[in-house]
């Protein structure tokens, strides 16, 4: 168990003050981050560098391989790049999964509104329904229904 002090920036324009709290695990920090939709910044810890790197790495994992099927929901992992470039983007439900939140008994699923592609196509900004966003690389995985995953796979096979 570790002790760390973490904070969120808040949004002064919206009247949301910065928040500071003590957390005892990286999983708890990431679960809280998932719930509040804002990055958590570690501001104090005995092993600050290592802890910040662990959080950065786990935050950006999109860790399940393409085709992984969630055993509880049946949702299928797909590449964010494939979803973003498809007609499903913005029309079909897609989700992010925070497995640490699920392990703690929280709902780890976050609904995605849509995905924007950077000009050079190397970065993707995922937008969520609770006014959050996350910038990821093309191989980051998100989840869609089995039907929509099959549609994406068919399009990928049809491309020359």
Protein architecture, described:
The strands form three sheets. Strands 5-6-7-8 form a four-stranded antiparallel sheet. A three-stranded antiparallel sheet has the order 2-1-3. The longest helix is centred in the C-terminal third of the chain and has 13 residues, at 146-158. The protein has helices spanning 26-36, 48-59, 80-84, 99-103, 146-158; strands at residues 4-8, 19-23, 41-45, 76-79, 94-97, 109-117, 124-128, 133-136, 141-144. By secondary structure, it is an alpha+beta fold.
Uncertain residue ranges? none
User: How many beta-strand segments?
Assistant: 9
Average the pLDDT over all residues and give the rounded result. 75
Distance between the termini: 51 Å
Question: What is the makeup of the main sheet?
Answer: 4 strands, antiparallel
C-alpha geometry:
globular
Quick rundown:
This protein is an alpha+beta fold.
Write the layout of secondary structure elements.
Elements: E1 4-8, E2 19-23, H1 26-36, E3 41-45, H2 48-59, E4 76-79, H3 80-84, E5 94-97, H4 99-103, E6 109-117, E7 124-128, E8 133-136, E9 141-144, H5 146-158
Antiparallel strand pairs: 1-2, 1-3, 4-9, 5-6, 6-7, 7-8
Q: What are the main properties of this structure?
A:
160 residues, alpha+beta, three-stranded antiparallel β-sheet, 5 helices, 28% strand, globular
